[in-house]
Amino acid sequence: MMTITEYLQRCVEEGAFPGAAWQIGGREGILEAGTAGVLGDGLGPVREDTLYDLASLTKIIVTYALMRQFQEGLVRLDDPVCRFLPAYRGGPKADITLLELLTHVSVIPGQLQLYRHAHTREDLLEAIQWQLPRADSPDRVSYTSKGYIVLGEVISAVDGASLDEVVSRRVLRPLGMRDTCFTPPERLMHRVAPTEDCPWRGKVVRGQVHDENAVVMGGVCGHAGLFSTAGDVARAAGVMLDGTARETGELFFHPAVLDKMTRNYTAGKGQNRGLGFILAGPDAPAGDLMSAASFGHTGFTGTSLWVDPVIGLYAVLLTNRIHPRRDNDMIFRMRHIFHNLAVLQYT
Prior knowledge:
alpha+beta, three-stranded antiparallel β-sheet
């Protein structure tokens, strides 16, 4: 049987991505960690401390911050956004609940390029607040990064602090995710894998969040912006096996909260969704061998994490598959094979 190392090296050679870092683990700890390929065109090899733009994996870390607030009794899932964001009172989105945002069934439209006409953080937030509700049925899942931008604003308001401060205090430090940050400083730039040769910016993006709406938001927002290593993302994945922070052995999520996060709230609505997570289903990137109880998320830049509490396994894969162009879609097939190999080798 082909090893994960052999498979990902083949993916590099076939052009799926310039390089990758990964980690497989279980309840007892790390089972495998490795790297393949290079950071990008003309750059050195990927290392274990390489920082990748997580893209929408940011949503998972932001979900953790909200659920830690939930665990302290500061929010409930049926709270409307207007409770925390006074500007929404009396508007068309005042009654959107946190649950609707977490499960992508709110009336906020999906992947709109607001950055093309909203050139400041304030303009973009106002555009989200007042844009027309989506035309399709709110009883269907409609994946929206804009909903997570709102969720980030709620989290910030609940703690009375900036989102990056809340995420650091409530998630990154307790889980030992020391290499994870928004807007990485210049001193770390040599460790950062570049993303797209971006027409909008007129350059290869390196160290700035790839998502254009996140750029307008200043790089700190609920839907994208975090940079991290495979080892750090594995800490975030591993905690979902039993709620325990591997770094300290302390309880990070109560079992009742874990259960709440991984229930299916959207059965029959087009995609299986938990709180922040994609759940196993026909269109999930879990592969063929993860159990029906597995869950995870992906990021546009070529990142993913997947967790299976039944077989006690997590799999993290970080790549920059959009370097230098975003039209490389080879990763969508190879993610499934990566997960299949993880199950075959470690169960």
